[in-house]
Write a structure and sequence with these properties.
The chain is α+β, with helices and mostly antiparallel strands and 202 residues long. The chain is built from 6 helices and 5 strands; from the N terminus they run ααβαβαβαββα.
């Protein structure tokens, strides 16, 4: 097992290019970490949705094959080649078959027409879109004094470093909260669900 809590994307890329480790291997390990701690055990609620395992492994296999065949090995498509990435659930991802809810039940079941430009660029760079992260509902635009990291769809994101979760008397950006509208992205990396999770400024 890889030390998922500590490995960076650069370190993973080094392992992918210098050892027998594959993108399929690391994808399965990250999926296992999500299954163990997102809703179960630690109940971190950092992830709202995950594509099918079949779809993820097919993408990983494609990138593993490209890496083996690349004349420019070990570079491949670049530093994100074969690296799992989790994206905030406000980036449209219809090609992956996942809703983009922004954490709101109002948007659940809705599909965009095309992927967000950021998603297209991540895919072109060889990233594996592993999951969509929880966030403060509607990017913290639903109202004032919202608890950071809470959404109707994803529930309350919890910091992996705070025992007992968010306190009932917590201020919106208080110590026990995961802080910020991109809290699911931050917690996903901190909990070893993925090595990279871009946030956004709403």
């Amino acid at each position: 097992m890889l030390p998922l809590l500590r490995l960076t994307a650069s370190e993973l890329q080094h392992l992918l290019t210098t050892t027998s480790l594959t993108s399929q291997d690391i994808t399965l390990q990250y999926l296992s970490q999500i299954a163990a701690h997102n809703h179960a055990c630690a109940c971190l609620n950092a992830i709202i949705s995950v594509p099918s395992q079949t779809q993820l492994l097919a993408r990983a296999q494609l990138l593993d094959d490209e890496r083996c065949q690349s004349a420019s090995r070990p570079v491949g498509r670049g530093p994100l080649h074969g690296i799992p990435v989790a994206v905030k659930d406000q980036s449209c991802t219809p090609s992956l078959g996942m809703d983009t809810t922004c954490g709101s039940f109002l948007l659940k079941g809705q599909q965009a027409i095309e992927d967000a430009v950021a998603i297209q660029k991540l895919q072109d760079a060889g990233a594996i879109i592993l999951a969509k992260d929880n966030l403060t509902e509607l990017g913290h635009k639903k109202g004032v004094k919202l608890t950071s990291g809470w959404s109707a769809v994803g529930g309350q994101t919890q910091s992996p470093y705070v025992r007992g979760g968010v306190r009932s008397d917590a201020m919106p950006l208080g110590h026990s909260t995961p802080a910020g509208s991109s809290s699911g992205s931050a917690v996903a990396v901190a909990a070893g669900f993925c090595p990279v999770a871009p946030g956004t400024e709403s």
